[in-house]
Amino acid sequence: xxxxxxxxxxxxxxxxxDLPWQNTRDPYRIWLSEIMxxxxxxxxVIPYYERFLQRFPDVAALAAAAQEDVMPYWAGxxxxxxxxxxxxxxxxxxxxxxxxxxxxxxxIATLPGIGRSTAAAIAAFAYGERSPILxxxxxxxxxxHFGIAGDPAKREIEQRLWALADAQVDAAPGLDMxxxxxxxxDLGATLCTRGKPACDRCPIAAxxxxxxxxxxxxxxxxxxxxxxxxxxxxxxxxxxxxxxxxQQRPEPGIWGGLWSLPEFDAADDPLAASRALxxxxxxxxxxxxxxxxxxxxxxxxxxxxxxxxxATLREPTQTERWIPQADLSKTALPAPVKKLLLGLVxxxxxxxxxxxxx
Length: 358
Ligand code: SF4
What we know:
Blueprint: H1 3-14, H2 27-37, H3 42-55, H4 59-64, H5 67-70, H6 81-96, H7 105-108, H8 116-127, H9 136-145, H10 155-170, H11 177-191, H12 209-213, E1 230-240, E2 243-248, E3 259-260, E4 263-264, H13 270-276, E5 285-286, E6 290-293, E7 298-307, E8 320-324, H14 335-347, H15 351-355
Parallel strand pairs: 1-7
Antiparallel strand pairs: 1-2, 1-4, 2-3, 2-8, 5-7, 6-7
Bound molecules: iron/sulfur cluster.
The site of iron/sulfur cluster has 14 residues, from α9 and α12.
């Protein structure tokens, strides 16, 4: 049997069938799952997916919402450009496509934040279109099965992989595209995993070059490692009568659109940084430093807890707010900031200072 029919037969018997975004042909629901699943595990995505759909059940609801209302439903999933593109994309569909999802993978790929593989997945699941996917998991399966060495992110290798992906579909007329696409995703996620591929249960083991040559650990060829730059920042946890001062981050940029703590040069004095905002700090408490890794750098965060006498800022702006601690969990905060603040509240803010801030 050829490659694709073996994947389909295996998917029908052993693949996943009960994920909340399966068993629908609604391109909106499929699209949302595809975007949420980029760089994020299925188990993490499920509760976000369900909450998001409850609040935004269709493209029209998402297009009509303000971006500000969308971000809290994404906060914690990371890679926030995905949420901003999702919202922009819904508005484009409402405006340019009469509220209906474009009918082909090629047209879907013109929308913001949707690459060729994601567009193909949506078109395969929603319309049964014969367009192959090639996401990170599928690249791993293909590089191993076809014995393709070289960094799959490099253009030349990627083109070879796309040609192979096309060839498998071309060789299988009448292929059930939804089952094939799901099968490739399931195989990459459950059997042909990065660390320990379960080759003895794999439906394409008989023709797998990596398996025949014992090269599973070498393929896909890892990226040449670059040292990731390190940066440091100070963060002010400014507290007044149980509320925290938060600033909305500019877009585009890291954590764009989310509400985060004011930052200052970590080498400077946090009391001076608080005074620069016009506040009158009581005292300062150094909190445990931690690091957060972004795609392009690692950020070392040194937070300071500072109760202040009054909430009056020197130059108040639309992008600064005192958020009461009870509202923190429904505010769109970057995950590490949320963890820091909720941890602090849970551990108990120094009580004498809470009552002593007038
Ligand atoms: S045989 Fe092993 S390495 Fe090859 S595709 Fe299957 S799980 Fe991956």
